[in-house]
Design brief:
single chain, about 240 residues, alpha+beta, four-stranded antiparallel sheet, 4 strands, rod-shaped
Length: about 240
């Protein structure tokens, strides 16, 4: 005889049980797929963030290194600018008729030990126009610092001993400004806190040839005057 299984199909167990299929299985599979995609995107985003952080650290390191190199080269750039300015000053002085070498030597002799000279500007008065401190002619503008106002007064008196000096004017004097932005590093290193600005005038010095030539009458005008006088003399003689 053939055996017959009287257990309902939905209650059977084992190999003979029918496969249970339905929408729930597809939902589970879809959820797992979405979860896998989300995890993959999260991993990729995390890797990208890590790469950006590493790139940012590298850029910061390169920026710090570049700033360090720029700071190391800054003194050379300042020295080049200062050298160029001094060359221009010396060239301007050499192009004038005024005896600047003698003035520089005498300035070095009268400069006191407690006076620091940080900036020197020379006005040659090449065109007779108003120059440094309203001086029409050769002049010097001195800037620097001292430990006190007494040293400034002594320096003003010493400048009057330079041959050819007609006036010495104290343009400005600041007490206790050696640590301000207007002072130089040399003043800070020396501990001089009083700043000064002095103009030395050489009013009696002769003007350069360019200015003197402008004062002379032009040759054409002189010839015209001579021809007019000659024609007047001819008319009187006639």
């Amino acid at each position: 005889m053939r055996p017959v299984n009287l257990i309902p199909p939905d209650m059977r167990r084992g190999d003979s049980a029918p496969l249970r299929t339905g929408p729930l299985a597809y939902i589970v599979v879809g959820a797992l797929a979405l979860l896998l995609v989300g995890v993959t995107m999260l991993v990729l985003a995390s890797n990208e963030v890590s790469e950006k952080k590493e790139e940012l650290v590298t850029l910061k390191r390169e920026d710090t290194s570049a700033k360090a190199r720029a700071e190391a080269l800054a003194p050379y750039a300042q020295f080049q600018a200062m050298s160029q300015q001094r060359v221009e000053t010396v060239t301007s002085l050499a192009n004038s008729r005024f005896d600047w070498p003698r003035v520089m030597r005498e300035l070095a002799l009268v400069l006191p030990d407690d006076v620091l000279l940080t900036e020197l500007t020379a006005g040659a008065g090449a065109t007779g126009e108003e120059g440094l401190g309203g001086v029409q002619g050769p002049s010097l503008e001195l800037k620097g610092c001292t430990p006190g106002q007494g040293a400034v007064a002594r320096f003003v008196t010493a400048l009057k001993d330079i041959d050819g000096v007609t006036r010495v004017g104290l343009e400005s004097s600041a007490i206790g400004e050696g640590s301000s932005a207007s002072s130089s590093k040399a003043c800070e290193d020396a501990g001089f806190e009083d700043l000064y600005e002095i103009v030395v005038a050489f009013d009696a010095a002769p003007l350069p040839a360019v200015a003197e030539g402008q004062l002379e009458p032009e040759p054409e005008a002189a010839e015209d005057e001579g021809s007019d006088e000659g024609s007047e003399g001819t008319e009187e003689g006639g």
